[in-house]
Amino acid sequence: MRVDVITIFPDYLSPLTLSLVGKAQERGLLDVRVHDLRAFTHDAHRTVDDTPYGGGAGMVMRPEPWGEALDEIAGADDDRVPLLIVPTPAGVTFTQARAEEYAAQPWLTFACGRYEGIDYRVVEDARRRMRVDELSIGDYVLGGGEAAALVVLEAVVRLLPGVVGNAESLVDESHVAGLLEGPAYTKPPTWRGLDVPEVLTSGHHGAIASWRRAEALRRTAQRRPDLLAAIDPETLSAADRDVVSTTDRGVIAARPMGETIRSNEGDVAG
Ligand code: JAH
């Protein structure tokens, strides 16, 4: 996979040489190129921003450097164009499903804006020749798109075929798709007076699998009832439904809470 990142802060992307993403590059599975938007300016001050039409606070990124950068970096190459990702709080939400879709692409380009964003004609123009995803990684405002690009790449690169350690762990993950994972433990069996749940040291693989499934269902019901509600009940076993029906937030168990004050009893507020 080829990845281009266009930014006024190329150094912000240096974490990409580390860890998993760096290893994937060393192994030739990934080719990341970071570009300085200011290289596509022509004035002495290398200006990338200007005041907003219609007034208002802050500055907007000028379209001309972006247009030239995208022509040069993301122009058709062997008749192929990248999928252009524009991080913005106004974008569609980044999810695991979207990470999987991106991992299947041969070429991604990130346009990382700053200030109040990029002149929107840049998106409109790019859409004349490539798919453009305006993408949000969550409901908060960053100083720019760079950190969002790092997040997206971290999620995508671990899905690439041949990236170390993904074969087993990805198979493992599909089993709990759409659920939160339960807690994990390692040695020693007792630490600061706290024991590892006995079932995990029992050697009973069936009992361990059932316990993990139940913990995942309980934790999801407690912390993310929205995720539980999105699961097709037909995909839950009778044992799964038993577990969910004995939690106080399971959709299947959904019932009025009456007058009992229980807002402080769970893992999360609410
Ligand atoms: C802020 C350009 N969803 C996270 C996110 C992504 C991008 C931005 N903010 C938040 C952002 C300023 C300028 C992009």
Overall description:
By secondary structure, this protein is an alpha/beta fold. It has nine helices and nine strands. Helix 3 crosses helix 5. The longest helix has 19 residues. The C terminus is likely disordered. The strands form three sheets. A five-stranded parallel sheet has the order 2-1-6-5-7. A two-stranded antiparallel sheet has the order 3-4. The site of (6-phenylpyridin-3-yl)methanamine has 14 residues, from strand 5. The site of (6-phenylpyridin-3-yl)methanamine (JAH) has 14 residues, from strand 5.
Element-level helix/strand string:
EHEEEHEHEHEHHEEHHH
Small-molecule components bound: (6-phenylpyridin-3-yl)methanamine
Rough shape? elongated
Total number of helices: 9
Q: Give the mean pLDDT.
A: 91
* Main sheet properties: 5 strands, parallel
Q: Would you identify the regions where 5 or more consecutive residues have pLDDT less than 50? A: 258-270
Strand content: 15-25%
First CA to last CA: what distance?
43 Å
Total strand segments: 9
- Evaluate the radius of gyration: 24 Å
Helix content: 25-40%
Neighbour order of strands in the largest sheet? 2-1-6-5-7
Structural class: alpha/beta
